[in-house]
User: What shape does this take?
Amino acid sequence: MSEPQKPVYNNSRFRVVDYNFDTFVGPQAGDKYIDATFTDLETREAVKLSDFDGQWTVIETGSSTCSMYTKNIPGMAELRGAHPDVRFLVVYVREAHPGERLRQHKNFDEKLAAAKLLKPKYDENRQILVDSHDGRFHRMYGMKPNLIYVIRPDGVVHYRCDWAHVSGLKNALEERDNL
Assistant: This one.
C-alpha cells in the first residue's frame, strides 16, 4: 500500500486540494509563537521572528496573487498609523493564484522578484519578509493564503485569524489594553 501523496507546496495552479480549509494549524491564542527565519526584502539579511521580541507585532501573510491580501493593504496602513507602537510585518508566501499573470516561484530568486512587486504595484509600506521557497514558516503557521497573527511583547500569541480582516485586527489591537 502506497502512502498518500503530499500536496505540492509551490503548485503551478490554484487547487482546492492543496489547502485544508477545515483546520487551522499553528500556534493558537495563548501559545508561545514558533520562531522562524525570513529574508528581509530590502536588506536581504536574515531576520528572525524572535528579533521582534519585546514589542507588539502583527504578521500578515500574502502574495501578489492573493486578492484577500491586496484588498487589505489600505486598511492595514490606517491601522498602522493608529498604532505606531506596533510592528506591522508582511510575510511573503507562495502565490495564492498562480497562473498567466504571475506564475508560481520555481526558486527563491523568483519569490524575491515577486515580492518586490508589492511596494510599487500595491503601495505596500510595511516591512516585507520573505518566507523560504519551501514555505517553512507558512507550513508551521497554517498555510492559509492570508492569515494574521498578533504577537504580544512576551512572545505569546494574542490573536490569530485564518483570513485577515482589518476590522478583526482593529478589535484585537484595541483589546490589548484590557490584558
Q: What stands out?
A: Residues 158 and 176 are 8 Å apart (CA to CA).
